[in-house]
C-alpha cells in the first residue's frame, strides 16, 4: 500500500487533466493488481473521469454546470445565503455536492484500467486560481 498527494494548479473554472501524472506514479509503484482511490481535499472542486480526446467535451461540461448553477449574482440564485466569499463560492459548493469528490480506478498489470478515451480530471468550480490537493491511495 502506498499513497501520494498530488497538487494541481488551476487558473479558474474548468477541467484539469492529471491522468499522465497518476499513470507515472502508479507505474513507479510496481503494483500489478490494485485499487487506486482518489479524493479531492476541497469542498469547491470535484473529480471526474471523462473523455480526453475532444476538448469540446470539457468546454460543454463547464458551460452546462455554469448554466445549471450560476453565480449568486444571477437573480435566480438570490435565495442563497452563503455569499460572503464571492458570487462563485456557494455555486462551487453545490457543484461539488452534485459531482464526485472521490473515485476508484482498478489497476491491472501496473496500469490504470481506464477506457481508450478516458482521462482523470480535477473539475475546478471557483473563479480564481487555486492549488488543489488530491490524495491518492494505491492498495
What does this structure look like?
This protein has 139 residues and is α+β, with helices and mostly antiparallel strands. The protein is 25% helix and 38% strand. The chain has 3 helices and 8 strands. The chain has helices at 19-29, 55-68, 89-98; strands at 2-10, 14-17, 33-40, 45-51, 102-108, 111-112, 118-124, 130-138. A hairpin with a 2-residue loop joins β5 (102-108) and β6. The longest helix is centred in the middle third of the chain and has 14 residues, at 55-68. The chain starts with a strand and ends with a strand. 28% of the residues are buried.
Shape: elongated
Helix content: 25-40%
* Averaged pLDDT: 97
Number of helices: 3
- Alpha-carbon distance between the two ends: 4 Å
Strand content: 35-45%
Run of helices and strands: EEHEEHHEEEE
Structural class: alpha+beta
> Can you list the strand order of the major beta sheet?
1-8-3-5-6
The total of beta strands comes to 8
- What can be said about the biggest beta sheet? 5 strands, antiparallel
Radius of gyration over C-alpha positions, nearest whole angstrom: 16 Å
* Low-pLDDT sequence parts: none
How is the topology of this model organized?
Blueprint: E1 2-10, E2 14-17, H1 19-29, E3 33-40, E4 45-51, H2 55-68, H3 89-98, E5 102-108, E6 111-112, E7 118-124, E8 130-138
Antiparallel strand pairs: 1-8, 2-7, 3-5, 3-8, 4-7, 5-6
Amino acid at each position: 500500500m502506498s499513497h501520494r498527494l498530488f497538487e494541481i494548479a488551476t487558473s479558474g473554472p474548468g477541467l484539469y487533466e492529471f491522468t499522465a501524472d497518476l499513470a507515472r506514479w502508479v507505474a513507479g509503484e510496481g503494483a500489478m493488481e490494485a485499487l487506486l482511490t482518489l479524493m479531492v481535499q476541497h469542498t469547491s472542486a470535484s473529480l471526474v473521469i471523462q473523455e480526453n480526446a475532444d476538448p469540446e467535451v470539457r468546454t460543454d461540461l463547464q458551460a452546462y454546470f455554469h448554466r445549471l448553477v450560476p453565480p449568486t449574482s444571477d437573480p435566480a440564485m438570490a435565495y442563497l445565503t452563503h455569499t460572503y466569499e464571492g458570487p462563485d463560492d456557494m455555486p462551487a459548493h453545490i457543484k461539488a455536492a452534485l459531482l464526485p469528490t472521490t473515485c476508484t480506478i482498478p489497476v491491472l498489470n501496473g496500469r490504470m484500467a481506464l477506457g481508450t478515451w478516458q482521462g482523470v480530471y480535477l473539475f475546478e468550480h471557483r473563479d480564481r486560481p487555486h492549488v488543489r490537493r488530491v490524495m491518492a491511495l494505491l492498495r
